[in-house]
User: What shape does this take?
Amino acid sequence: MSAVGLEATRAARLDSRRARARAVLGQLVRSASFDVGAIIVVFWVVDAIFWHVMVPQDPQALNPLAALQGPTAAHWFGTDWLGRDVFSRTLAGATSVLEIAPLATLLGIAGGTIVGLVTGYYGGAVDALVMRLVDAFLAFPLVIIAVLVLALLGTSEITVIVLIGVIFTPVVSRTVRSVVLVERDKEYVASARLRGEGDWYIMTAEILPNVTTPIIVESTVRLGYAIFTAATLSFLSLGIQQPSPDWGLTISLGRQYLQIAPWIVLFPAIALATLVVAVNLVADSVQQVMAR
Amino acid sequence: MLSYLSKRLLLALVTLVLVSFIVFLASDVLPGDVGRTILGNFATQAQVHALDVKLGLDHPLLDRYWIWVSHFVRGDWGTSYTLQVPVFGLVMRHFLNSLILGAFALVLIVPVSIAFGVLAATHHDRPIDKAISVTGMSMLALPEFVTGIVVLVLFSIVVHWFPVSSSVPVFSLPSIVRNLFLPALPEMVLIFGYVSRMARAGTVEALNAGYTRTAVLKGLPRHRIMLRHVLRNSLLPTITVVAVQAGYLVGSLIVVETIFNYPGIGNLIYTAATNHDQPVLQAAVFLVALVYTVTNLMADMLYAVFNPRVRLAS
Amino acid sequence: MSELTTADDVLSVSDLSISYRRRARAMRVVSDVNFTIRRGEAYGLVGESGCGKSTIAMAVMAYLADNAQIDSGSIRLLGDEVIGARAADLRDWRASRVAMVYQDPGSSLNPTMRVGRQLAEVYRYHDHVTWDKANAAALSMFERVQFADPRKILERYPHELSGGQQQRVMIAMALAANPALLILDEPTTGLDATVEAEILDLVEELLRDIGTAALFISHNLAIVSRLCDRVGVLYAGRLAEEGPATEVLRTPRHPYSIGLLNSIPHWGATKDHLRLLPIPGDPPAIGQIPSGCAFAGRCAIAQDACLTAPPVLAPCEGAHSLSACLRRDEPAALAEVAAKNMVADGPGPVATPVRISREAVVEVTDVVKRFSTHGTTLTAVSDLSLTLHQGEILGLVGESGSGKTTLARTIAGLYRADGGSVAVGGAVERSRRERASYLQMVFQNPDTALNAKFRVARLLGRSVKRLNPGLSADERHAKVIDIARSVKLLESHLDLLPGALSGGLKQRVAIGRAFTGDPKVVVLDEPASALDVSVQATILNLLVDLQREHGLAYLFISHDLSVVRYLSDRIAVMYLGELVEVGPAEVQVSPPHHPYTEVLLSANAAAIAAGRPRIRLRGPSPSLANPPSGCRFHTRCPRSLGDLCRDVVPPMQNAGEGHQYRCHIDPTTLAGLQSSRPEAS
Assistant: This one.
């Protein structure tokens, strides 16, 4: 064997896949907006799991005598119309949305990936039909579909998760399909066919690993939207029901006290704002780093 | 061009037919027992059945769809179950109100958004760009009810500049601003996020394009490069986004109109959904989807008009 | 070393070093480059991808990327320093002192602006004339670049023009303000051979008429030798050799220049008589330039001193050229380069060529393949019949849009023919798996042909598993190692992802993969076109070796006639989806041949450099959607007979020895026409 290869190998000894993962992570950590976003997201995730030990008071404990009090040393964020501690309720309110959003995202990504892979790979009539359906589906603002379905079917946490997941499926499938269309025409797919591989193998073993980057990016973006949508549904009283300390629900119910006790809605609103902005900061950084 | 347009039109029509079917299915099949819903728990089964027959609910699904569609295109949209008024007038009145609100928001914010997007692109990766991008991204991320609540607290409760609940303005500038500014703000926040982001992305791409390099290396003055070579190409995709936003706007009005008690189509859909008012729901939701499809169609046509590659394709 | 700037110097680059910053690391791409271009002189900068030639051009235009930094040196344009010049001065100098023609005219033109306007702009903003005057000037400039209908072209948008027309517009634009220096950065890369020849003719003519100096950047030695007075050979960011074009290209004094020249098949060379002499190894990765001579690792005559001493251009004894090689004045050492490169390339082929039998391994009969997009139907291949015999290499030539790749993919079974039949190994209907073990394919671009997420071992292993059912895991592993060895890959390569391999190594993996099932036929679709010249030769040699070892048949597709002629036993020529000529390789390159083949032959850069007469195409390239009546070539044919060719589909003429061509002119007459010196065109 020639001495030629030796040199090239030495230069490329680095395990390139792990090296890339490390490089991506390194770039992410170096991005300030990712760091800020990630810290906030981690805080809320920890809070969603361990809020029992973090809250100073029971978020459901009623105290009618202390209702509608402004922020004090005893109640940092004040109390609501039933005298419950707004600070404790704000901490406890992260759980519901952080349960619904990731599950719904997972569902939408899974569904969208399957639909996108199949339609993109096969193309033709099935693709045309499914894409028309997707078009028609996307003609409805997501919130309107949700309102329609939840108002008519009734609501539960499972329904909300499934609904958001189903609503996301066509959106994700479009993204996945567009990248699959590009990959499908690359010669490695042709060469797989030339060695007699089946369609299923080509889709899952050959193409799928090559479209993971856009799927990861889409997942982070979708997670932001899922939180957005879940909170909006709670706000419209179509998601989480009372007496949950869920942020959207609290804001919806506390609205009537806006003029006399704005803190009831203000703090959950700020909490929700930090979470969605943080998730989007992370998504944005991931997108930028992955695009390189 | 003509073949492109006719093809695009046909596509939109197919989408619309599918849309109408989805609307019909969703509002017809999902609610289950309509007669029972209207008459309440105390009516007898016979009474419910009589009402079902009267409403034509005993016909097969496709027949009912056909009846609904054929009535719909003639402007006969039925009668509201709960309000007992013709649906057409009701929906149109609310739709018009929403249109006023949406147009107000769009006209105010789109030029600003584009300007900021272009500014960010020309300062790519510098502090101005970072500031604009992160602000735009955050605005995009915030649910309308969060921004709605915040502006309400700020402008109506802290400083009392605007009323807590808005109504349709009469045709005078103070009235328009007084009634529309607050409900339009959450919309504007969202639109700013989308449009500035798209304008930035498009402009960054155009600035890095080969034709911009050619223009610079031809020794052209900066204004000529920016206006004729960069922006002419970069704002093309932004047009589409603005139109898509105009369509989506109607949907996101549900939340805003609820917060500000503004009598628009979003408010109407929400009420109709919670009251199971099927004819109103069908008509309003279909109208929203129609608006979305038509604005999308218009966006594509506008794009075609400005893009010689599409315009001149035979 | 920097030269004194004289008044006659249009451009003088001295001690120029440029780096790119990437992830906080500076990567040197241009090091200590010195050269000067005098008034009216054409200077060629030659080198392979990543050698820094385009970076130098952009530095001269003062338009480097944001992450590039000039570490040292100076660039003087008509005596004025470009580095650090004021924006207003730069704007003034661009177009009027220096202008540029780019590699990709399609993306270099504004898609939303008529090309006439884009040209008129230059006059409007440089000469400050009215738009009317600017438009008039644009029209006369379009006449100068020889548009058939310049008035019409003015009104066109870029997407309505062909690649060749777009490049004419770019040339017109570059020359509009009478620059003292014209930079041409690979201006014909990506264009078809016939269009390339036309554009080069035009450039040659304009440079002569206007007296503009030119900096011509190219990887193609033949083009440079045709156009340039002086040449600089760039390797890994440094000039390896510089001097008068005739000297550098005829008697090179640097082992890299010698290797480059030996890598390309000379006009008339064939595999049975001459083995190509590739340069072993790959060029260093961008930014990884060693401290000593960058070429030492690939150099057959490197000494210890080469690894430490930074190379400096110095005059050669008894010549006008400068070389950076320490052994430039040792003719004996330089003469050894070729022999040693040959040894490094491997033991060479089995001495005897494969015996070609009459047995058909692929039989294409009246195949039709159509594509419909946006409502129009293109017939990419129409009624084509062709036979590939056991053990032969059939070269398939044609320009873009001729349907050669479509035909290849139809033969491979990737496309289903809309008419006619393809019999592989005597059978028309074959299962995917049967076809797979009989016929394999190697694609042009190894980057997309290898799944980037699979390691080499898996890429080869999966193929072994599919194509050799019944092997145990150990046997499969042994076979993978066997194949890797046969394509000269190291065992350590097996653990790498394609991203960690150079282009040449990737293509070896792809070739190895095609051979895993011992196929009878391999379809090669431009297997070496995406690679650098020095690597291309290695791949072509490897293909010849494998073919002789396995005794199989190749269908070899290429746009490069010299390569096809070097490799093939028979050559088939396609034009607009039709087979216009097929015959033994040695017969086909001498008359008679189809007039289209005649044009292709005369447009080949190597052939032009070898002094063959030029014959030019008439008219624009017709569209596949609407092919001409009668003979498809009649609209452009230099030997057209008029009405007959326009109205009647020509017959296949038989010129003996299996040589056939589709034309109305019979072999004797055609041979007569083509042997006599063609009328000046």
About this structure: The domain at 2-291 of chain A is CATH 1.10.3720.10 (MetI-like fold). Chain A has one domain: 2-291. The mean pLDDT of chain A is 87.
